[in-house]
Amino acid sequence: MTDVEIPSEQWAQVVERSGGPVVYKKIPVRKPGPDEVLINVKYSGVCHTDLHAMKGDWPLATKLPLVGGHEGAGVVVARGELVRDVEVGEHAGIKWLNGSCLACAFCMQADEPLCPHALLSGYTVDGSFQQYAVAKAAHVAHIPPECALDAVAPVLCAGITVYKGLKESGARAGQHVAVVGAGGGLGSMAVQYARAMGLRVIGIDGGEDKGKSCKSLGAEAYVDFKISADVVADVKAATDDGLGPHAALMTAMSDKPFQQATGYIRSRGTIVCIGMPTGAELRAPVFDTVVRMVTIKGSYVGNRQDTQEALDFFRRGLVTVPYETVGLSELQNVYQLMEERKIVGRYVVDTSK
Ligand code: NAD
Ligand code: ZN
Ligand code: ZN
């Protein structure tokens, strides 16, 4: 099947029980099935979803024991006998959607994230916090060879997700978009994709360092929710005519900003929910939603085409993720920083350390 030498054991970070912590240990390397590939993961981004998975705080159970991670960038080292369109040696990415049935009503329309049989990396199947990860060949991301694997890793979830969310918002070039959680992993990417798509960005997050970061990535305005006396008024004031942004991309994992967005969104505007705060519910005044014709919708990762488009923005140098690299062995510390909201941009783990 391949000339590449594949070890029988490898280092991985394993969630042994819901709630954590992760345990750094050696586990066996799996063999790919007929329609799967084995990827030697070099780097993996750490998404807030991985923390939700370890804590088990979403209303969807994870597999256990679990290897998390779904922003894994690496090299294909083996493939099953049915695989034709992924080559050994190719750079490929493990993303959230590890596989889907390709036959249901959603898959038929390239809405594969909605597939009732979807396999989720680092959640229902083992993900990228290991040196060798398996994915369905049909769903791996094809990473252009000129892209550095550490820098591109966060595109595989954060990038794809916010790019899709911006498309779902319907906002057009020249219009204002509020990015809520703009200093975080998804938010940092959203600021840049929005800019590259010709949108004018208002970043919302807490703290001076996050403000500096999102301004440097291209936000025109920054509203610090920790010091603003009236977030709704400040966001509206940041738009040319004071009527509020045409779209709001919700990437924070706290529910208060959802209510604020219903206050500042422009009439006919769209609120796109992306972050999933534990137990959060959406509340919006029905009267206002009707007479101002506001749209509130969810957006969930992206399909295979969104994936390749999001990667192409990266390849062309239009989005650069601010990231810091640490060894895979330090994953628990990254979760700690994430919990304390101290991360600006993304942490990427190097699976060789
Ligand atoms: P992150 O921790 O890197 O970033 C979240 C940011 O939100 C932080 O910078 C934090 O300071 C900020 N924040 C917190 N409270 C805020 C408030 N009141 N107002 C403004 N900003 C606030 O997390 P991430 O990796 O970017 O993930 C964010 C969320 O998106 C998580 O819930 C994750 O599970 C979810 N997610 C959803 C999808 C999807 O397909 N819909 C995909 C990936 C991640
Ligand atoms: Zn993610
Ligand atoms: Zn399906």
Distance between the amino and carboxyl termini: 28 Å
Number of helices: 10
Q: What is the SS-derived class?
A: alpha/beta
Shape: globular
Secondary-structure element pattern, one letter each: EEEHEEEEEEEHHEHEHEHEHEHEHEHE
What is the helix content? 10-25%
**Could you describe the largest sheet, including whether it forms a barrel?**
7 strands, mixed
Total strands = 18
Question: Overview of this structure, please?
Answer:
This protein is α/β, with parallel strands linked by helices. The chain has 2 domains: 9-157 and 302-350, Quinone Oxidoreductase, Chain A, domain 1; 159-298, NAD(P)-binding Rossmann-like Domain (Rossmann fold, 3-Layer(aba) Sandwich), CATH 3.40.50.720. It has 10 helices and 18 strands. A hairpin with a 6-residue loop joins strand 1 (9-15) and strand 2 (22-28). The longest helix is centred in the middle third of the chain and has 12 residues, at 158-169. The protein starts with 8 loop residues before the first strand and ends with a strand. The site of nicotinamide-adenine-dinucleotide has 33 residues, from helix 1, helix 4, strand 12 and helix 7. Its cofactor is Zn(2+). It comes from Parathielavia hyrcaniae.
